[in-house]
């Protein structure tokens, strides 16, 4: 899994999330490496609180899918029990809109695909 692709947002001097359009070559390199290795990405819901969208941004998730990526997990980056699973439904709805067919959980480090 490639997690926290949008983590750079936490330290950005701009009050906007990192967009695929900002660094397409760099983001493509990361995503192509993940897809080529049979790995997936984490969609983190914490971005909804500051930016109204998850991290990575929807355009980056769409690009992952265009490159053939299928393994996507959703995390809430919960540091407190009251936010475990927060915005999960919203994130899964977005994934479906972007064309994702599955969301994954893991058992013994192997992805388990759940149809959405």
TrEMBL record:
Transmembrane annotation, as ranges: none
Coiled-coil regions listed: none
Gene Ontology terms, MF aspect: histidinol-phosphatase activity
UniProt entry keywords in alphabetical sequence: Hydrolase
Biological process annotations from GO: L-histidine biosynthetic process
Keyword Hydrolase appears in the UniProt entry: yes
Record flagged with keyword Hydrolase: yes
GO CC annotation: cytoplasm
Cross-referenced PANTHER family: HISTIDINOL PHOSPHATASE-RELATED (PTHR21039), HISTIDINOL-PHOSPHATASE (PTHR21039:SF0)
Record's protein name: Histidinol-phosphatase
Species of provenance: bioreactor metagenome
């Amino acid at each position: 899994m490639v997690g926290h692709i949008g983590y750079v947002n936490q330290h950005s001097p701009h009050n906007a999330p990192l967009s695929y359009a900002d660094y397409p070559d760099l983001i493509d390199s990361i995503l192509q490496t993940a897809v080529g290795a049979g790995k997936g990405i984490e969609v983190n819901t914490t971005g909804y609180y500051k930016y109204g969208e998850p991290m990575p941004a929807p355009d980056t998730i769409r690009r992952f899918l265009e490159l053939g990526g299928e393994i996507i997990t959703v995390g809430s980056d919960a540091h407190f029990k009251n936010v475990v699973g927060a915005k999960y439904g919203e994130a899964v709805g977005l994934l479906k809109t972007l064309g994702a067919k599955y969301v994954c959980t893991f058992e013994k480090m192997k992805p388990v695909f759940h149809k959405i």
